[in-house]
Amino acid sequence: MLESIQIKSFAIIEALQLEFEQGMTALTGETGAGKSILLDAIKLISGDRADIDSIKSGEDKAEISVCFDIGGQVEASDWLQSNELESDGECIIRRVLYANGRSKAFINGYTAPLSQLRELAQLLVDIHGQHEHQSLQKPTVQQQLLDAYSANAELLETVKIKFKAWRELKRQFEQVKSGSQEREQRIDLLKLYCQELNELNLYTGEFNQLQDDYKRLSNAGQLLETSGLVLGLLYDNEETTAQSLLSICQKALSEQLQIDPRLTSSHELINNALIQIQEASDELRAYQDSIDLDAEQLDHLNQRIASIQELARKHHVQIDDLAVLTATLNKELEDLQSSEHNLDSITVALDQARHEYLESATTLSNQRKVTAQSLSEQITDVMQQLGMQGGEFLIQVQAQEGESNFRQTGIDQIIYLVSANPGQPVKALNKVASGGELSRISLAIQVILSESSLIPTLIFDEIDSGVGGGIAEIVGNKLHELGLNRQVFCVTHLPQVASQAHHHFRVEKNKSADNTTTEVIALSESERLEEVARMLGGVTITEQTRAHASEMIGSRRQA
C-alpha cells in the first residue's frame, strides 16, 4: 500500500508530506483547491511524461517521492528482484523535474527509465477516473481479473508451462523443416568439401616439412656438387688436401716436442683438427649417398604443395588452419545428416505437445466461461445499485481456433461488454461514452474482486460525478466495503461518500498578496465533522447541518 508521499515545489505546493493508512481515505475540498494535484503527482511517479509547467513558479526543480509497503505483494517484489532493485519490504519511487525540461526517476535509489516506472506502478497503484490510467480497459487486465476471481492460478501455470513446451518444439520443427532445401544443398556442398579435405589428409606441420623436402630435392644437383668439392678439398683429392697438409704439420711438430714441450698445445689442436676433418669427410660421404635425384618424387612434392595451397585459397583460410577446417566441416555434415532423422521424432513430440496444451487451455476456457457468467450477473447487480438502472454487464469468453491464437494465457479472447442504459445493446467497455459510468463500472468490479485483486492501492477520481442522494450513499458504502480489504483513495465532492471514509484529508488553497499555495490537512474527528457539514450546507453551516453531518459519520461507524 501507499505509505507516504513527499512533494516539493510542484504546481502550487511548496512542501508537503503525508502519511497514509489502510482503508478508505477521502480527499475533499472546494472546487479549485487543488485536489487533482495529488493525483497528478502520483501519475508522474507512475511514469507519466513531465511538464515543466508543473514546477512551482520561481523554482528550478520539483520533486515527488512516494513510499510503498510491498509486504505480501509478490508480483511487485518479484519485479523488483528481477530488475535488481529489491528492498526490504519497501519500494521508494522518486521523480525530479527540472526547469530545463529534463527529469530523473529513481526506484529504491537507483536511476530508472520511465518504462520501468510504468511497469512497476501497474503492480502498485491503479487510478480510476475519466482519463488515462484506466487499466480496466486493457485486455490483459480484463483476463487477469477474471482469472483472479476464478482462482485459476494453478491451471494458468499449467497452461503456461505447456505453451512453452509446445512453442519450443514448434521452433525446432520449423527450423528443421523450413531449411530442408537449403540443408540439402548445404549437405551436398559439404560432402564435396569434406571429400577433398579428407583425401588431402593434411596433418599439422606437414606443409612446412613438404616445403623443406621440395627445396632440398629441387637443389639436389647443386648440393651434390658442393659437397663433393668440399670433400675433395678436405680428404679425397689425389693432390694436396686439408688432411694431407695437417698431417705434415702434425708430423713436423711431433719431432720438435722433445726440444720444446711448449709446442704440445699446438700439436694437440692439429690432431683434433685431423679427427674433425675425418668425421666431416665421413658425414659428407653419407650425405651424398642420401641425396636422391628423383624427378618423380620432386613432381609429387610439387603437386601436393599446390593442392594444399589451392584448398587453402578456396576456403579462404591459412594453410595452418586447414586441419581445423576439416574437422569443423565434417562435424557440420554429421549434424545436418542426423537432423534429417530428428524431423520425424520432433513431429511426433510436437503433436503430443499441441494436444496437451489444447487440453489444458480448453479446460481453462470452460472454467472461465462458467465464472464469467456468475461475475457478469454480480457486476450487473452492483451497477444497478450504483444508479445505472437497466444497465447490463457481460463478460464474453471466446475460444479462438488455430495455432496463431496459442498464448501462454490460453486460447481465449476475453471482452468486457456493457450497456449503461436500458434498451441499449452491450458494447465493448472502451466504447462507453461516459467517464463517470466507466468509473462506477470499475468500482462495481473492484468491490466484487476486492478479495482477489492484483493491485493494492486504488484511486477513484470523482467517480460520484453525476450522482447524488441515495445513489451517492451507495457509492460511498461500496468504497467503504472496498476499503476493508484494500487501500482506497477517493476524490469526492459528495458528503454521502466522504462521511463513510476511514480517513479524511481536506485540500485547501491559501492565497497571499504574492503567492498561492495548496495545503493538505489530515482532519481530526471534529474537523472532519465541520468538513462534512460544509459539504452539506455550503457557506453557512448551521447546528442542524452539523447534526446531519454527525449522523452521517455516526451511521458509518455503526455499520
Topology:
Elements: E1 2-10, E2 13-19, E3 23-28, H1 35-45, E4 61-69, H2 74-82, E5 90-98, E6 103-107, E7 110-111, H3 114-124, E8 125-128, H4 139-150, H5 153-178, H6 180-200, H7 206-218, H8 220-236, H9 242-256, H10 264-290, H11 295-314, H12 322-385, E9 392-399, E10 412-419, E11 427-428, H13 435-448, E12 457-461, H14 469-483, E13 487-491, H15 495-498, E14 503-511, E15 516-522, H16 525-537, H17 543-558
Parallel strand pairs: 3-13, 3-14, 8-12, 12-13
Antiparallel strand pairs: 1-2, 1-4, 4-5, 5-6, 6-7, 9-10, 10-11, 14-15
Helix pairs in contact: 4-12, 5-12, 6-12, 7-11, 8-10, 9-10, 12-13, 13-14, 16-17
Characterization of the model:
It is built from 17 helices and 15 strands. It is α/β, with parallel strands linked by helices and 559 residues long. The protein has 2 domains: 200 residues, P-loop containing nucleotide triphosphate hydrolases (Rossmann fold), CATH 3.40.50; 217 residues, no CATH class. The strands form 3 sheets. The chain has a 6-stranded antiparallel sheet, covered by helices on one side. The protein has a 6-stranded mixed sheet with strand order 8-12-13-3-14-15, with helices on both faces. It has a 3-stranded antiparallel sheet with strand order 9-10-11. The two termini are 24 Å apart. The model has no long low-confidence stretch (mean pLDDT 85).
